Amino acid sequence: MIDFTERTDTLLEETRYFGVHESGVQVYVVPKKGYQKCHAMFATRYGSLESEFMKGDQKVRIPDGTAHFLEHKLFEEPDGNVFDKFSVLGASANAFTNFTATAYHFSATSNFYESLATLIKFVQNPYFTKESIDKEQGIIGQEIKMYDDDPNWRVYFNVLGCLYNDCYVKYDIAGTVESISEIDKDILYDIYSVFYHPSNMVLYIVGDIDLEKVNTVVCGSLKQAEPLSEPIQRLYPAEAEHIAKDYVCQKLDVAVPLFTLAFKDTDTALRGDALLKKEIEMKILLELLFSKSSAIYKTLYEKGLINDSFGADYECHEEYAFACLVGESKDPHAVRDIVWDMLQSQEITEEEYERARKVVWGNYVRLFNSTEAIGYSFVLHHLTGIDYFNFRQVYDAVTLSDVRARKAGGLDVKKSALSVVSGEQA
């Protein structure tokens, strides 16, 4: 049985239990008394960013899109599709692959423990055949072509291609039709044996559940595994500080041009709580500079350059980080110019800082109202080396001077790029 340790945040009155199964899987349980819906997520630190690694003394380059392809294929079993099993149990299951993780999850209001066992077992039992892989290549090929015509998808990945020279984050998570054609069952089994090793995985369980029952189900479902002969050695190409280019425009059928103005953050040497602190500082910064109450938003809106679709986001990892402003505009270049000018001239006041700080804290607290939001946020941070349960302590350490200093590196106009999708080529 797993020996769980308890940790409670007395301010939030939230408790989580943590333990490590003897196979190496890290297990978190967050009880939510009185909640009808339970949620479980079984995830591995393996996403599209992991395109190269060492196998013994050999460097292995994985075809782009392999992580996403493997996610699709894992749902297939010799006797059918695992979605059918979840459906019979009344559970809603799904999965996703991003730059840093692949995660399998479900939500249920009944038959939770049976669904939990199903989740754990199917993720541990890969089944690949040449015939099914050939079929999946056609299915995912169509999905890739669909994304190629998706304006929101293209405006996002086009800007990453502007920001990054060599980092694999610039490549489409699904790969290309050409790259997935290189995938065969031997590649999938090899990748699975490395990146789906229990020591590289985490199981997060949230809801009105019994810890002892969870312990019994988890221990009865997780397989034993031989330790990895050596730690996973991921290989990431060195990324230059400068951006690849500052502008790209793609012509697609849209009524109003879409834009993404992104800022490359080159402060990527941070880990753990230091990385979390940077994320919190940037969230505060984006809230005070670009929310609907900000001077920049009001200026752009009053000039008719943006609408309610405008928003800001920040993504950070040990190997990359960037901030994005997204929206629709009849003149994306004017949006960029005004943002650039106001960023360089606007000073951050203590009043603005305190308001934005409270918003960021409120957003964190609201996570605990949703079992899915808890699982998603905490798992993705965990796989980036961040314990999101440390949020309050790290948040309390952030100061106004920290946020002012972060602005210079996180929103450097010299490391920004504009991506536009328009009905007209520009």
Overall description:
The chain is built from 15 helices and 17 strands. It has 426 residues and is of the alpha+beta class. The strands form 4 sheets. It has a 7-stranded mixed sheet with strand order 1-2-3-11-4-10-9, with helices on both faces. A 5-stranded mixed sheet has the order 13-17-14-16-15, with helices on both faces. A 3-stranded antiparallel sheet has the order 6-5-12, with no helix packed on it. Strand 1 (5-9) and strand 2 (14-20) form a beta hairpin. Helix 9 (272-290) packs across helix 12.
Can you give the mean pLDDT?
95
Helix-strand category: alpha+beta
Overall morphology: globular
Gyration radius from CA atoms, angstroms: 22 Å
Largest sheet: 7 strands, mixed
Uncertain stretches of 5 or more adjacent residues = none
Number of strands: 17
* Strand order across the largest sheet: 1-2-3-11-4-10-9
Instruction: Give the N-terminus to C-terminus distance in angstroms.
Output: 62 Å
Question: What proportion of the residues form beta strands (DSSP E)?
Answer: 15-25%
Instruction: Figure out the total of helices.
Output: 15
Question: What fraction, in percent, of the residue positions are helical?
Answer: 40-55%
